[in-house]
């Protein structure tokens, strides 16, 4: 069969690059409230609890949008859904430049950006992986997961430096411009299906069956998947453990780590650099997790990831809150930041099939963001009430250890060995 390639390569590799960059940028947008928590407080007099409420609203809607975004992508197309989401994120960021009260913060950085970024997250990666790949799905999902978490962390020192030197508005302008610049890239360079460029999915046989394109109502499709999932033990265990994943990562560390370091006398740029270290090690850890997921029982991987994450959070109060004292935490936690995504999708694929799995993963990811929103709000309120974040971090550590043991209760079959 005659196929189109880039420099002799499968076009799936170009698709991976485009989605990787889009996920990276959307994650940068979601990390912005954590960078601007202190500057917004100084500029408007808002408390940490008020700003945390806006951040929690965005995180919650980010997660709840996932299953509906997955259904919309199957019905209306990945490209159209992504363009609409990027436009919404760009517009909401721009509108926030003119806010004067906290309800406008909630509307722009909570509601609008939450819905927009919720379309460009793990469910997008799941659809691309299942649509464009037959082999190496775990590895590619690991790359996508790494881009999401790395974007959250690597952009923090850059945005923190801009905020420290020039105020909060240039940070918002940079984010809005990045969203707008991605729209033509997606429009011109992202095919909807492998067949649109004369190819079969990566690793597929030449006689691979044609894709079945959805014509159903996206809302009905999403809720039908939820009804089916609620009858499954694996669905509930995946949802509960992924709730803990969100609680311990972007909800707690991603939203409050800079503010925590600020409380202990560390400058914002140095604290952002600490999170950048996490991002770099996460890129390694999550990509390696994808490779391992193709070869190792994912339940065992989840046990290890949640257990190690819990121990690292419990260790945090014993760090001396110097840059070097926290570097050990950053490396350890970074390797484990979101390594849970590839094995979670692998279990969902085997439990529900590759066609239904992206929507199921959307609902599972919704629980992730409910956990993240809970942590963002809980830590902010706790900090306002007690003057300290440390109790929140230690509690999160013990919750992660519990999740490690819950992961072993999943009954999904072990993966077949994959040749190196």
Write a compact overview of the structure shown.
The protein has 420 residues and is mainly alpha-helical. The chain contains 16 helices and 2 strands.
Layout of strands and helices, then pairs:
Blueprint: E1 5-6, E2 9-10, H1 12-44, H2 48-76, H3 78-95, H4 102-118, H5 122-132, H6 137-166, H7 168-189, H8 218-229, H9 233-248, H10 250-263, H11 268-293, H12 298-315, H13 323-335, H14 341-352, H15 357-386, H16 390-407
Antiparallel strand pairs: 1-2
How is this structure best described in words?
It is a single chain. The chain has 16 helices and 2 strands. With 420 residues, the protein is mainly alpha-helical. The chain has one domain (5-196, 216-407): MFS general substrate transporter like domains (Growth Hormone, Chain: A), CATH 1.20.1250.20. Strands 1-2 form a two-stranded antiparallel sheet. A hairpin with a 2-residue loop joins strand 1 and strand 2. The chain is globular and about 60 Å long. Residues 1-8 and 414-420 have low confidence and may be disordered.
Properties at a glance:
420 residues, mainly alpha, Growth Hormone, Chain: A, two-stranded antiparallel sheet, 16 helices, 76% helix, disordered N terminus
Average predicted confidence as pLDDT: 85
> What's the number of structural domains?
1
Strand order of the largest sheet: 1-2
> Helical proportion?
over 70%
Helices and strands, in N-to-C order?
A: EEHHHHHHHHHHHHHHHH
Q: What overall geometry do the principal axes of the alpha carbons give?
A: globular
In the predicted model, the low-confidence regions spanning at least 5 consecutive residues are 1-8, 414-420
Kindly provide the name of the CATH class. Mainly Alpha
Multimer state: single chain
Measured between the Cα atoms of the first and last residue, the distance is: 27 Å
Number of helices: 16
Structural class: mainly alpha
User: For this structure, what is the CATH homologous superfamily?
Assistant: MFS general substrate transporter like domains
User: Main beta sheet: strand number and arrangement?
Assistant: 2 strands, antiparallel
Named CATH topology = Growth Hormone, Chain: A
């Amino acid at each position: 069969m005659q196929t189109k390639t880039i420099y002799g390569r499968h076009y799936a590799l170009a698709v991976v690059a485009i989605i990787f960059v889009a996920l990276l940028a959307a994650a940068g947008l979601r990390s912005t409230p954590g960078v601007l928590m202190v500057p917004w407080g100084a500029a408007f007099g808002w408390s940490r609890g008020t700003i945390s409420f806006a951040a929690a609203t965005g995180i919650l809607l980010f997660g709840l949008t996932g299953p509906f975004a997955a259904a919309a992508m199957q019905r209306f197309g990945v490209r159209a859904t992504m363009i609409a989401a990027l436009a919404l994120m760009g517009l909401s960021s721009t509108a926030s430049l003119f806010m004067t009260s906290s309800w406008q913060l909630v509307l722009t950085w909570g509601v609008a950006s939450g819905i927009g970024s919720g379309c460009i997250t793990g469910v997008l990666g799941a659809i691309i992986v299942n649509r464009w790949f037959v082999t190496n799905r775990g590895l590619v999902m690991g790359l996508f997961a790494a881009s999401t978490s790395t974007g959250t962390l690597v952009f923090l020192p850059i945005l923190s430096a801009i905020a420290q030197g020039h105020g909060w508005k240039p940070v918002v302008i940079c984010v809005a411009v990045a969203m707008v610049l991605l729209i033509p890239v997606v429009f011109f360079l992202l095919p909807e299906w492998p067949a649109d460029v004369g190819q079969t999915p990566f690793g597929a046989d030449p006689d691979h069956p044609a894709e079945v394109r959805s014509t159903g109502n996206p809302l009905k499709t999403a809720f039908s998947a939820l009804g089916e999932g609620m009858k499954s033990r694996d669905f509930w265990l995946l949802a509960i453990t992924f709730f803990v994943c969100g609680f311990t990562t972007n909800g707690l560390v991603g939203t409050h780590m800079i503010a925590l370091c600020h409380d202990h006398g560390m400058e914002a740029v140095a604290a952002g650099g600490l999170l950048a270290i996490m991002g770099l090690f996460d890129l390694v850890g999550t990509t390696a997790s994808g490779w391992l997921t193709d070869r190792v029982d994912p339940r065992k991987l989840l046990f290890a990831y949640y257990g190690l994450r819990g121990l690292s959070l419990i260790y945090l109060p014993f760090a001396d809150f110097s840059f070097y004292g926290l570097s050990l935490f950053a490396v350890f936690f970074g390797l484990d930041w979101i390594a849970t995504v590839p094995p979670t999708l692998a279990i969902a694929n085997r439990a529900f099939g590759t066609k239904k799995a992206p929507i199921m993963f959307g609902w599972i990811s919704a629980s992730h963001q409910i956990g993240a929103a809970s942590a963002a709000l809980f830590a902010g309120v706790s900090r306002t009430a007690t003057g300290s974040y440390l109790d929140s971090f230690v509690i999160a550590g013990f919750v992660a250890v519990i999740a490690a043991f819950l992961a072993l209760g999943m009954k999904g079959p072990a993966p077949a060995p994959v040749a190196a």
